[in-house]
Every structure is written in C-alpha cells, then in structure tokens.
Amino acid sequence: MRMAPRGSNGSGGGTKLLLCLLLVACTGAAGQGLRVGFYQQSCPDAESIVRNVTWPAAAADPSLAAKLLRLFFHDCFPQGCDASVLLDGRGTEKAAGPNLSLGGLEVIDAAKAALERSCPGTVSCADAVALATRDAVSFQFGRLLWQVETGRRDSRFSDEADGTKLPNPEYVFPILRDSFARRGLGVADLVALSGAHTLGRTTCMFVSPRLYTFQGNGGVDPFIEPRYARELMGQCTSMASANRVVMDPGSEFAFDTSYYRAIKANRGVLLTDSVLTHDDEAARLVDEMQDLGKFLAAFAASIQKMGAMDVLTGSQGEIRRNCRVVNY
Ligand code: HEM
Ligand SMILES: *[C@@H]1O[C@H](CO)[C@@H](O)[C@H](O)[C@H]1NC(C)=O
Ligand SMILES: *[C@@H]1O[C@H](CO)[C@@H](O)[C@H](O)[C@H]1NC(C)=O
C-alpha cells in the first residue's frame, strides 16, 4: 500500500508518525512527480554543473564515491531523500549515532553553491545529493552509470530519532530483510544495494563484536573464514579499537563485483554483509551479482528506487538555499 504524497512537513514528525500509523505501511509515494530532466527548462545545465564539481573532487579524493553513496543512503532510508541528513544542529539526523563519519558534505556545499550561482533557488539539495552520488560513483567508468530522476524538494526538519532507523550492522537476515521491506525495498534491492560495500571502510566498532563477543558469548563469529577473522583481529585489536578497516580488501576504491566474491567466501566484514549468503533467495542473487553487467544494471535499478522513496515534490518542503540550514 502506498501513501499519498504527504503534506507540507512544517508541522513536524508527529503528523507524519500519525499518518504512518493510520496507513500501516509507510513506504511513501514512490517518486510521484520525479522525472529525468526535471530541470530541463528551469536550469538546463543543472546536471553538468553538479558533474563539473563532482568529477574533479572524485579525481582528487578516491574515497569520495564511498562517502557520497553512504550519505545518499543515510538521507533516503530514514525519512526519504529530502536532504534532511545535511541539516546541521543538535537533535538532527546527523547527530544520531549511525551517522558516524559521514563525509562528502563539502562537495555537496560546492555543488549547491555552483547551482545557486547559475539558477538561484531552483535545484534542491536533495537532488544535488542524488546527482553528485551518481557522478562520483560513475567517475571511474568515465560515463554515467544510471539516470537520476529529479524534482525532489528539501525537508524543513530532521530528527535524530530518524538516524536510528538505519539498519543495524548486527542484524540477522530476517530482521535486515524486514527493515528494507518496510521501506518498500525487496531482497533483490537489498542484495544489489549492499554491493555499495565494494567501496569504503568501516569503523572497528561495527566489526569487533563479531570478533570478540559474538552473540554475547565471548567468541568469534564461526561464519567468518578463519584466516580473514585473524586478519580482522590484527586491525581491530580490541572492542575499543577506533581503526577503520577496508570493507572490500584489495579493491577499496573500485566499484566492482569483488564484494560479492568476498561474501561468498565468508569474508564479509559486517554481519549484515555475511548474512546475505545465509538465505537461499539472497544467496542466489549474490551469485548473479558476480557478473559486472548484471550488478551494474541491478544497482542502477535499485538506487533509482531508493532515490524515489518518500520524496517531497510539487509544493512540499522547500528549495533550501544553504543545504545545512532550512530557509527562514
Ligand atoms: C544493508 C544494510 C546496511 C548496513 C547495516 C550498513 C552499515 C554500514 C556501516 C556500519 C558502515 C561503516 C560506517 C563507518 O564506520 O564509517 C557502512 C559504510 C558504508 N556504507 Fe553501508 N550499510 C548498509 C547498506 C548500505 C547501502 C544501501 C549503501 C548505499 C547504497 C551503503 C553504502 C555504504 C558505503 C559506501 C560505506 C563506506 C563509507 C566510507 O568509507 O566513507 N550501505 N555501512
Ligand atoms: C563543464 O565542464 C566542461 C569541460 O570543462 C565545459 O565544457 C562545460 O561548459 C561545463 N559546463 C558547465 C555547465 O559549467
Ligand atoms: C554525528 O553525530 C555525532 C554525535 O553522535 C557528532 O559529534 C558528529 O559531529 C556528527 N557528524 C556529522 C558529520 O555531523
């Protein structure tokens, strides 16, 4: 069941929560009002303006694609892709525990500043994030990997409690599957989008429990391939370690299929990566994703779907002038 486009969110989260309760499934209007080329008339250069900021930044910082991809996920998953994650301040999503080490915000600021110079008050921060993410991930291919539907508007609020609605890296498969299902994302989306972990790093905080206190019993997760477990223990030396480990060893910056080979070999770094091989349907999809063409196509489809979840369109929300603060 899909919810009608929600009204102006000026009244805050209470109304939204109530609507969600009344409608049971709160998956939102799946991208009604979004379309490719939304700014064709109002800001014809919008996409190249963002790309002209993002590609040089990606050339200078090989970890940018990881940062933006995670930022986009954190924006979309809790309350829809509405740039709520970009808002500064106490009590916002950014201030929630799982936001840890969010990056790439300066690139969004730079893209938005360039957009405002050419087309003041026209292109939303939410769209800037969606476009910059696509561009940063695409940079290494020298072509755009997916089309971005645009027309999102920016929310006027952000709630720390929403940041905690992100999936926990210690979820077992059924819980993980349900957390995606609640957002209208199926197992195929879960498997394809998890492929984002072919990029980037994780703080040991999310890994050490698997090494030292697995399910509270003081041991190591028996599903981790033993040599890999020892490798991880060398990098996350205790429960208190603040190191960051590569999620897809040997291929940290390449957007490729090695993540799927790793999890098949029981070398997934987070529990939520490993458990994708503990379910028949997911495991079959993991096998399929070993093919780069299939992975790129599946990822494109699923990130478009994620990018359309619960968006604000039409006259909802606003076009923020500065992505870090709501307009006043
Ligand atoms: C399936 C549920 C997911 C869980 C439990 C999860 C959890 C995590 C955790 C714990 C980290 C490490 C954060 C840190 O310590 O810095 C991380 C990193 C990352 N996640 Fe996820 N994630 C999930 C899905 C996704 C999705 C759907 C995307 C994007 C489509 C994504 C993109 C990333 C990226 C790119 C990084 C690396 C960031 C960097 O190195 O800067 N994740 N994720
Ligand atoms: C983007 O960069 C290209 C190459 O430098 C340039 O030709 C183009 O005019 C730029 N586009 C915009 C909108 O700034
Ligand atoms: C994330 O939240 C922490 C508090 O939990 C805060 O100290 C940090 O500045 C936030 N990170 C960003 C990028 O806002």
TrEMBL record:
Residues 1-31 form the signal peptide. Its cofactor is Ca(2+); heme b. Its main location: secreted. Removal of H(2)O(2), oxidation of toxic reductants, biosynthesis and degradation of lignin, suberization, auxin catabolism, response to environmental stresses such as wounding, pathogen attack and oxidative stress. Heme b binds at H197. One of its GO terms (biological process) is response to oxidative stress. Substrate binds at P167. It catalyses: 2 a phenolic donor + H2O2 = 2 a phenolic radical donor + 2 H2O. It comes from the Eukaryota. Its EC number is 1.11.1.7. Keywords: Calcium, Disulfide bond, Heme, Hydrogen peroxide, Iron, Metal-binding, Oxidoreductase, Peroxidase, Pyrrolidone carboxylic acid, Secreted, Signal. GO terms for cellular component: extracellular region; plant-type cell wall. The active site is at H74 (proton acceptor). Binds 2 calcium ions per subunit. The record marks R70 as: Transition state stabilizer. The gene is LOC101761446. Ca(2+) 2 binds at T198, D248, D256. Disulfide bonds join C43-C119, C76-C81, C125-C323, C204-C236. PROSITE patterns: PEROXIDASE_1, PEROXIDASE_2, PEROXIDASE_4. Ca(2+) 1 binds at D75, G80, D82, S84, E93. InterPro entries: Haem_peroxidase (IPR002016), Haem_peroxidase_sf (IPR010255), Peroxidase_pln (IPR000823), Peroxidases_AS (IPR019794), Peroxidases_heam-ligand_BS (IPR019793), Secretory_peroxidase (IPR033905). GO terms for molecular function: heme binding; lactoperoxidase activity; metal ion binding; peroxidase activity. Residues 33-327 form the Plant heme peroxidase family profile domain. This is Peroxidase. It comes from Setaria italica. It is found in: Secreted. Coiled coil: none annotated.
